[in-house]
Specification:
This protein has 4 helices and 71 strands. By secondary structure, it is mostly beta strands. The strands form 13 sheets. Strands 20, 23, 24, 27, 30, 33, 37, 41, 44, 47, 50, 53, 56 and 58 form a 14-stranded mixed sheet that branches. A 13-stranded parallel sheet has the order 15-18-21-25-28-31-34-38-42-45-48-51-54, with helices on one face. The chain has an 8-stranded parallel sheet with strand order 19-22-26-29-32-35-39-43, with no helix packed on it. The longest helix is centred in the C-terminal third of the chain and has 9 residues.
Amino acid sequence: PDQFGFDLVLPSTPTADGSVPAPTLTAYDNGNNSIAGRIAAGSVTWAINGYTGPTDGPANPANDVINSLFRGGSGADTTVASGSGPVTLTGDGVTVTLGVPVPTMNGFLIDVDGVLVSDGLIHWFTTTTPDSPVSNFELTGDLFFSGTLEYDGTTDMTVGMDFYSGSIEFEAGVLCGTRHVALPPAGADFFPVGPGLAPNTCRTPGLPCATIQHAVDVACPGDIVDVAAGTYPEQVEIAKALTVRGAGAASTVIEPSSVVANTASLSTSNPAAAIVLVRDATDVRIEDLAVDGSTAAFNACAPSYFGVFYRNASGTVDGVDVRDVLQPGAVGCQGVVGIFAQSGAGGATDLTVSNGQVTNYGKNGITCNESATVCAIEANTVIGRGPVPLGDAAQNGIQIGFGASGRIEGNTVQDNDYLPQTVCATGILVLADGVEVLGNTLSANFCDLIAIGNGGRIEGNDIPAVPVPNAFPLAVIGDGNDVDQNRVSGSTTDGIYVDGISNSLTCNRITGSAGAGVLIDAVSATGSTAGTPNTVASNVIAGNTVGLDASAVTSFPLIDATGNFWGCATGANSPGCDTTAGSFVDATPFATEEPVCVTCAGAGGDSDGDGVCSNVDNCPAVANPGQEDADGDGIGDACDVCPNDPDDDADGDGVCGDVDNCPADANSDQADLDGDGVGDVCDVDESPGSLVLSRATLRHSTSGRPNGNIRVNGLLNTNDTETGFEATAVAGGLSVRVQDGADVDATATITGCVVKGSRRNIQCKSSNRLVVANFRRDPRGPFLYRSTIVLKRLDETTVGTGVAVGPVDVLLEEGPTIQRNDRIGELEACVPRTRTLSCREG
């Protein structure tokens, strides 16, 4: 409301001519609802003030401050960091960035944004309500603001002072954590407060929100949105890093009654209605729920219709069932997909779809399209509507195409069929280079697997003749593809169709085709020499009308068809064996029995060539025909890094468990301060100096913005008297220093330590609340504390702007100077990413 205004004073030292004192901003508490009764509360740097008039706020000179609702700082002088471009001013309780001034007729406009640190209280505009801690309202006390202000030189007549005015928008920092959702009456998005409504923050399990979208809106990046069982009639849009987790796909369903277009797809001019839209965000997980499009189905091809749509976003869809996404009264629509991943407008998409089920879709089950899109599609069941009639959309179960890349592995895809069979409805369709299609089972698709591209890997797929004979089981169109260990049977045409050069077909089992087991076409998809060179070697090709048909190949080099088993011991073209067609085929020497790699096809092959199928080989990558295993752990001695340790270095520190002094905790240096044979990291009675880190996350600052942060978790063993650590911390405070292997070097001092509750946990906060440390008693020992240390809003000189590298070292000092109780901890298992370093123990 206009009753409230934001006042900020930033003194500059010295002033313009040294004669004008710095202005003072005074905060006020409401006394008796009158200006005369207001109570001065001292100097502050900033305040959000309530004015006397309910509609005439700070813009009316006749009004005056009656209460300072939020306030912070003490009015101390400001430090100015200047240079080319924007200027940053850092004062007590405030950091402000001033943009480049834009001249106007009488002055200039300037963009501002910044961070305010409050005193942690809400100072109510009433004489009867005590001040409230901001935490009561799920707030951190930090406020973020931005806007455009104007300086008017014709009205500013005060020498040495400049007055800027305009509108400012605020956002409040909120407390983070798991958000809870349940259907009404248990859930509610808003609560009555006085004459109005206040939003539910969803952080209390007993007070959940009613909608998933509201929980997403109020969540912090990185939070979990925990959705209880029920059917939620809503579209959901996610534009931040989150995990949305249901109670299981059988009981938690997102099923809107209608949908509206909420993004673009396929082209920027083509709108799309996605039931769950994830856009412009990273690390978004959706898991253990169902998305149902049946109620919201509409009878038109525009907008496009998607169950789950990741657009310029990354994350995982795991254990999610997507069903009935189609327009039943508008057949033939091409933009109707169960799960869709796509990049556009210079963005990127990286999506994993796993352990789910997609059924009864309009056009495609799972689709990944466009360059800068990478997908891993793993262990899903995808079931089409086939056979669909003429005029309807020819379905594809799984598709990666149009510049996308990725892997399709371990899926079951069926019932993508079309009548009459004039257009391929495909189980798996690849329209891109370098895609891996591994270990899938395909059946009852008109065209089971079509791979159009170069440099792909088609391995271990099973295409049986049940429940109906397949028409086009496997087609490879392109160059340089590896087609290995696939099983194709009962085709009504050809088993494997090849159109291209330099393709390698090995260790496949191709049987029972009404046409050729392998047909090599004469015209390469890339315009290369007709049909050659290609290799068709070490396969089982038996029971086909023609084993290998290369009759269209009319020039050298020969097709390498050596080492195949043709169904009998006497080779191709002999009685009882499959035949070859064409003059440019070399089928000798041949195998007199099935090659081991084919016998093992479907069992992982025989990757090390020792005659033991990989699925039962205890060293599948190292030849060990005797299968020796001294410690009985299922890993053969030939490849067991710890042949006498059945747990095989369970903590991953490079020291075998049979000699590791902490076999369950990573401790590669085997440090043992007290010499008791138990390593420091697992010895709860270790001597002073034990800070065992379990996790650390370092995020760089965005250039020009102090928004870097560090979070460290660990176990602190004080090994001191019962009250020694808390007494030292309360009396002298703590200091912490965090370093990485590159340019991160953050130090902070905390003096405000207090003992909380009957368990005597210790909580420490810096004066500006940007450094927080919590120490919670651990039940395993009287001197053990579970520790969490957080450093927030770090600038780029502290945490850099590039890629952090391990290891991460943490020095925790008790009291104002270094003493015997200083703790040093290190984490070496670090994974660097852009702007983030994540480290874990071991």
